[in-house]
Write a structure and sequence with these properties.
The structure is a single chain. 40% of the residues lie in helices and 15% in strands. The protein has seven helices and eight strands; from the N terminus they run H-E-H-E-H-E-H-E-H-E-H-E-H-E-E. The longest helix is centred in the middle third of the chain and has 25 residues, at 120-144. The protein is globular. The protein binds NADP nicotinamide-adenine-dinucleotide phosphate.
Length: 247
Protein backbone atom coordinates (compact mmCIF):
# COMPACT_ATOMS: atom_id res chain seq x y z
CA UNK A 1 0.00 0.00 0.00
CA UNK A 2 1.24 3.48 -0.79
CA UNK A 3 1.81 5.27 2.52
CA UNK A 4 -0.47 8.28 2.93
CA UNK A 5 1.26 11.16 4.71
CA UNK A 6 -2.12 12.71 5.42
CA UNK A 7 -3.41 9.53 7.06
CA UNK A 8 -0.47 9.18 9.42
CA UNK A 9 -0.56 12.87 10.29
CA UNK A 10 -4.21 12.61 11.28
CA UNK A 11 -3.57 9.50 13.40
CA UNK A 12 -0.90 11.16 15.52
CA UNK A 13 -1.70 14.86 16.05
CA UNK A 14 0.65 15.21 19.06
CA UNK A 15 3.65 13.83 17.20
CA UNK A 16 5.37 17.23 16.86
CA UNK A 17 5.19 18.28 20.51
CA UNK A 18 8.70 18.89 21.84
CA UNK A 19 10.36 17.94 18.51
CA UNK A 20 13.53 19.92 17.75
CA UNK A 21 13.27 21.21 14.17
CA UNK A 22 15.45 23.46 11.98
CA UNK A 23 13.60 25.15 9.08
CA UNK A 24 15.56 26.92 6.34
CA UNK A 25 13.79 29.63 4.36
CA UNK A 26 11.62 30.25 7.41
CA UNK A 27 11.39 34.00 6.89
CA UNK A 28 8.80 33.98 4.11
CA UNK A 29 6.40 31.90 2.02
CA UNK A 30 6.07 28.14 2.47
CA UNK A 31 8.80 27.95 5.13
CA UNK A 32 7.18 30.64 7.30
CA UNK A 33 3.86 28.76 7.18
CA UNK A 34 5.64 25.53 8.16
CA UNK A 35 7.27 27.30 11.13
CA UNK A 36 3.83 28.54 12.24
CA UNK A 37 2.31 25.05 12.04
CA UNK A 38 5.22 23.48 13.91
CA UNK A 39 5.17 25.96 16.80
CA UNK A 40 1.37 25.68 16.98
CA UNK A 41 1.85 21.90 17.27
CA UNK A 42 4.24 22.36 20.21
CA UNK A 43 7.57 21.88 18.41
CA UNK A 44 10.77 23.73 19.34
CA UNK A 45 11.84 25.44 16.10
CA UNK A 46 14.93 27.22 14.83
CA UNK A 47 14.06 29.26 11.73
CA UNK A 48 16.64 30.69 9.36
CA UNK A 49 16.80 32.94 6.30
CA UNK A 50 18.73 36.05 5.27
CA UNK A 51 16.13 38.64 6.26
CA UNK A 52 16.80 39.40 9.94
CA UNK A 53 13.85 41.85 10.41
CA UNK A 54 11.38 39.29 8.99
CA UNK A 55 12.82 36.62 11.28
CA UNK A 56 12.56 38.93 14.31
CA UNK A 57 8.91 39.58 13.41
CA UNK A 58 8.33 35.80 13.17
CA UNK A 59 9.86 35.25 16.61
CA UNK A 60 7.60 37.98 17.99
CA UNK A 61 4.49 36.43 16.39
CA UNK A 62 5.20 32.99 17.82
CA UNK A 63 6.81 33.93 21.12
CA UNK A 64 3.69 32.89 23.04
CA UNK A 65 3.89 29.24 22.03
CA UNK A 66 2.57 26.57 22.50
CA UNK A 67 5.98 25.47 21.18
CA UNK A 68 9.04 27.69 21.07
CA UNK A 69 10.96 29.59 18.40
CA UNK A 70 14.51 30.79 17.86
CA UNK A 71 15.85 32.53 14.76
CA UNK A 72 19.26 32.74 13.06
CA UNK A 73 19.95 35.03 10.09
CA UNK A 74 22.30 33.45 7.53
CA UNK A 75 22.83 33.23 3.78
CA UNK A 76 22.96 29.47 3.20
CA UNK A 77 25.28 29.84 0.21
CA UNK A 78 28.05 31.39 2.32
CA UNK A 79 31.00 29.12 3.17
CA UNK A 80 30.46 29.57 6.89
CA UNK A 81 26.67 28.94 6.85
CA UNK A 82 26.75 25.20 7.66
CA UNK A 83 29.00 25.87 10.67
CA UNK A 84 26.84 28.82 11.81
CA UNK A 85 23.63 26.77 11.63
CA UNK A 86 25.04 23.54 13.09
CA UNK A 87 26.59 25.68 15.87
CA UNK A 88 23.18 27.22 16.62
CA UNK A 89 21.65 23.73 16.77
CA UNK A 90 24.45 22.50 19.06
CA UNK A 91 24.01 25.44 21.44
CA UNK A 92 20.21 25.21 21.57
CA UNK A 93 19.76 21.43 21.74
CA UNK A 94 22.93 19.39 21.10
CA UNK A 95 20.73 17.19 18.88
CA UNK A 96 18.24 17.64 16.06
CA UNK A 97 15.07 15.64 15.37
CA UNK A 98 14.19 17.13 11.98
CA UNK A 99 15.57 19.39 9.27
CA UNK A 100 13.12 21.01 6.87
CA UNK A 101 15.42 22.16 4.07
CA UNK A 102 13.06 24.57 2.35
CA UNK A 103 15.08 27.63 1.23
CA UNK A 104 15.03 27.90 -2.54
CA UNK A 105 15.14 30.32 -5.45
CA UNK A 106 13.77 30.61 -8.99
CA UNK A 107 15.97 33.28 -10.56
CA UNK A 108 14.72 33.29 -14.17
CA UNK A 109 11.40 32.52 -15.82
CA UNK A 110 12.47 32.48 -19.48
CA UNK A 111 10.63 30.04 -21.73
CA UNK A 112 13.91 28.73 -23.20
CA UNK A 113 17.06 27.96 -21.23
CA UNK A 114 19.32 29.86 -23.64
CA UNK A 115 17.45 33.07 -22.78
CA UNK A 116 18.23 32.85 -19.06
CA UNK A 117 20.87 35.40 -17.89
CA UNK A 118 24.45 34.11 -17.59
CA UNK A 119 25.10 32.43 -14.26
CA UNK A 120 21.46 31.50 -13.59
CA UNK A 121 22.14 27.77 -13.37
CA UNK A 122 25.18 28.25 -11.14
CA UNK A 123 23.37 30.58 -8.71
CA UNK A 124 20.26 28.43 -8.64
CA UNK A 125 22.18 25.23 -7.97
CA UNK A 126 24.17 26.98 -5.22
CA UNK A 127 20.97 27.64 -3.23
CA UNK A 128 18.76 24.70 -4.24
CA UNK A 129 21.33 21.87 -4.28
CA UNK A 130 24.81 22.68 -2.95
CA UNK A 131 23.62 24.49 0.19
CA UNK A 132 21.25 21.65 1.27
CA UNK A 133 24.05 19.14 0.69
CA UNK A 134 26.55 21.12 2.80
CA UNK A 135 23.98 21.75 5.52
CA UNK A 136 23.08 18.07 5.85
CA UNK A 137 26.77 17.12 6.11
CA UNK A 138 27.24 19.65 8.93
CA UNK A 139 24.06 18.57 10.75
CA UNK A 140 24.57 14.79 10.56
CA UNK A 141 26.14 14.44 14.03
CA UNK A 142 23.20 16.35 15.58
CA UNK A 143 20.66 14.37 13.54
CA UNK A 144 22.27 11.07 14.55
CA UNK A 145 21.87 12.20 18.19
CA UNK A 146 18.19 13.08 17.58
CA UNK A 147 15.02 11.07 18.19
CA UNK A 148 13.80 9.24 15.06
CA UNK A 149 15.57 11.89 12.96
CA UNK A 150 14.35 12.92 9.56
CA UNK A 151 15.11 15.34 6.75
CA UNK A 152 12.47 16.88 4.48
CA UNK A 153 13.88 18.53 1.36
CA UNK A 154 11.36 20.90 -0.18
CA UNK A 155 11.62 20.09 -3.86
CA UNK A 156 9.18 20.66 -6.72
CA UNK A 157 7.07 18.83 -9.28
CA UNK A 158 8.97 21.03 -11.78
CA UNK A 159 12.00 18.81 -11.12
CA UNK A 160 10.35 15.41 -11.53
CA UNK A 161 11.01 13.40 -14.70
CA UNK A 162 7.60 14.50 -15.99
CA UNK A 163 8.35 18.14 -15.14
CA UNK A 164 11.60 18.08 -17.10
CA UNK A 165 9.62 17.81 -20.35
CA UNK A 166 7.67 21.01 -19.61
CA UNK A 167 8.74 24.41 -21.05
CA UNK A 168 10.37 27.27 -19.11
CA UNK A 169 12.29 27.73 -15.82
CA UNK A 170 15.10 25.45 -17.08
CA UNK A 171 17.70 26.12 -14.40
CA UNK A 172 15.12 25.79 -11.63
CA UNK A 173 13.91 22.44 -13.05
CA UNK A 174 17.47 21.10 -13.30
CA UNK A 175 18.27 22.18 -9.73
CA UNK A 176 15.21 20.39 -8.33
CA UNK A 177 15.83 17.28 -10.50
CA UNK A 178 19.31 17.16 -8.97
CA UNK A 179 17.85 17.77 -5.50
CA UNK A 180 15.55 14.78 -6.03
CA UNK A 181 18.68 12.74 -6.80
CA UNK A 182 20.25 14.03 -3.58
CA UNK A 183 17.17 12.85 -1.67
CA UNK A 184 17.43 9.35 -3.15
CA UNK A 185 21.19 9.16 -2.49
CA UNK A 186 20.94 10.45 1.10
CA UNK A 187 17.98 8.16 1.82
CA UNK A 188 19.95 5.13 0.61
CA UNK A 189 23.15 5.99 2.46
CA UNK A 190 21.39 7.03 5.70
CA UNK A 191 18.85 4.16 5.72
CA UNK A 192 18.23 2.99 9.30
CA UNK A 193 19.72 6.22 10.71
CA UNK A 194 17.90 9.24 9.23
CA UNK A 195 14.75 9.22 7.08
CA UNK A 196 15.11 11.48 4.02
CA UNK A 197 12.12 12.46 1.90
CA UNK A 198 11.08 15.20 -0.53
CA UNK A 199 8.03 17.47 -0.45
CA UNK A 200 6.43 19.02 -3.50
CA UNK A 201 4.49 21.90 -1.91
CA UNK A 202 2.40 22.43 -5.05
CA UNK A 203 2.15 25.70 -6.98
CA UNK A 204 1.40 28.24 -4.26
CA UNK A 205 1.16 32.03 -3.92
CA UNK A 206 4.52 33.28 -2.64
CA UNK A 207 7.30 35.54 -3.91
CA UNK A 208 8.59 32.53 -5.85
CA UNK A 209 5.23 31.08 -6.92
CA UNK A 210 3.73 34.45 -7.97
CA UNK A 211 0.21 35.90 -7.65
CA UNK A 212 -1.47 33.53 -10.12
CA UNK A 213 -0.70 30.33 -8.21
CA UNK A 214 -3.83 28.40 -7.17
CA UNK A 215 -2.57 27.11 -3.82
CA UNK A 216 -1.87 28.63 -0.41
CA UNK A 217 1.12 28.28 1.90
CA UNK A 218 -1.23 26.88 4.55
CA UNK A 219 -1.94 23.92 2.26
CA UNK A 220 1.79 23.38 1.69
CA UNK A 221 2.44 23.52 5.42
CA UNK A 222 -0.27 20.91 6.03
CA UNK A 223 1.56 18.63 3.56
CA UNK A 224 4.85 19.21 5.37
CA UNK A 225 3.28 18.39 8.74
CA UNK A 226 1.81 15.18 7.36
CA UNK A 227 5.21 14.17 5.97
CA UNK A 228 6.95 14.95 9.28
CA UNK A 229 4.43 12.72 11.03
CA UNK A 230 5.19 9.65 8.89
CA UNK A 231 6.95 6.68 10.51
CA UNK A 232 10.76 7.02 10.41
CA UNK A 233 10.89 3.87 8.26
CA UNK A 234 9.43 5.84 5.31
CA UNK A 235 12.42 7.16 3.37
CA UNK A 236 13.51 7.98 -0.19
CA UNK A 237 10.07 9.14 -1.35
CA UNK A 238 8.42 12.31 -2.64
CA UNK A 239 5.03 13.54 -1.42
CA UNK A 240 2.52 16.14 -2.58
CA UNK A 241 -0.73 17.01 -0.79
CA UNK A 242 -0.16 14.16 1.63
CA UNK A 243 0.18 11.49 -1.08
CA UNK A 244 3.23 9.86 -2.63
CA UNK A 245 4.05 10.90 -6.22
CA UNK A 246 6.72 9.79 -8.70
CA UNK A 247 10.15 11.36 -8.83
N1 LIG B 1 5.78 28.65 -4.41
C1 LIG B 1 5.66 27.61 -5.23
O1 LIG B 1 4.75 27.55 -6.06
C2 LIG B 1 6.61 26.44 -5.10
C3 LIG B 1 6.36 25.31 -5.90
C4 LIG B 1 7.20 24.21 -5.80
C5 LIG B 1 8.27 24.25 -4.93
N2 LIG B 1 8.52 25.36 -4.17
C6 LIG B 1 9.68 25.35 -3.26
O2 LIG B 1 9.27 25.72 -1.97
C7 LIG B 1 10.38 26.32 -1.28
C8 LIG B 1 9.94 27.64 -0.67
O3 LIG B 1 9.57 28.50 -1.73
P1 LIG B 1 8.56 29.74 -1.53
O4 LIG B 1 7.57 29.67 -2.59
O5 LIG B 1 8.14 29.82 -0.12
O6 LIG B 1 9.58 30.93 -1.90
P2 LIG B 1 9.79 32.37 -1.25
O7 LIG B 1 8.53 32.93 -0.72
O8 LIG B 1 10.56 33.13 -2.28
O9 LIG B 1 10.73 32.05 0.00
C9 LIG B 1 12.02 31.53 -0.21
C10 LIG B 1 12.70 31.36 1.13
O10 LIG B 1 14.05 30.90 0.89
C11 LIG B 1 14.95 31.75 1.59
N3 LIG B 1 16.21 31.89 0.86
C12 LIG B 1 16.37 32.09 -0.48
N4 LIG B 1 17.67 32.21 -0.77
C13 LIG B 1 18.35 32.08 0.40
C14 LIG B 1 19.72 32.12 0.77
N5 LIG B 1 20.70 32.33 -0.13
N6 LIG B 1 20.05 31.93 2.06
C15 LIG B 1 19.10 31.73 3.00
N7 LIG B 1 17.78 31.68 2.72
C16 LIG B 1 17.41 31.86 1.44
C17 LIG B 1 14.22 33.09 1.71
O11 LIG B 1 14.66 33.77 2.84
P3 LIG B 1 15.37 35.24 2.80
O12 LIG B 1 14.78 36.03 1.70
O13 LIG B 1 15.12 35.77 4.19
O14 LIG B 1 16.79 34.90 2.59
C18 LIG B 1 12.78 32.65 1.92
O15 LIG B 1 12.52 32.40 3.27
C19 LIG B 1 11.50 26.48 -2.32
O16 LIG B 1 12.44 25.44 -2.18
C20 LIG B 1 10.75 26.35 -3.64
O17 LIG B 1 11.58 25.89 -4.68
C21 LIG B 1 7.70 26.46 -4.23
Amino acid sequence: MTPSAAGVGVQDPGAMSGRRVLVTGGSRGVGRAIVHRLVEAGADVLATGRDAPLLAELAEELGGGPGSIGVVAADITEDRAPAVLSGAVARRWGALDALVSNAGVMLARAERFEDEPDGTLEETVAVNLVAPHRLVVALLPALRAGAEPRIVHVSSGAGTREGMAEPGIGSYRVSKYALNGLVLMQAAQLRGEVAVNALDPGWVRTGLGGDQAPGTVAESAAGAMALLGLPATVTGRIFKDGEEISF
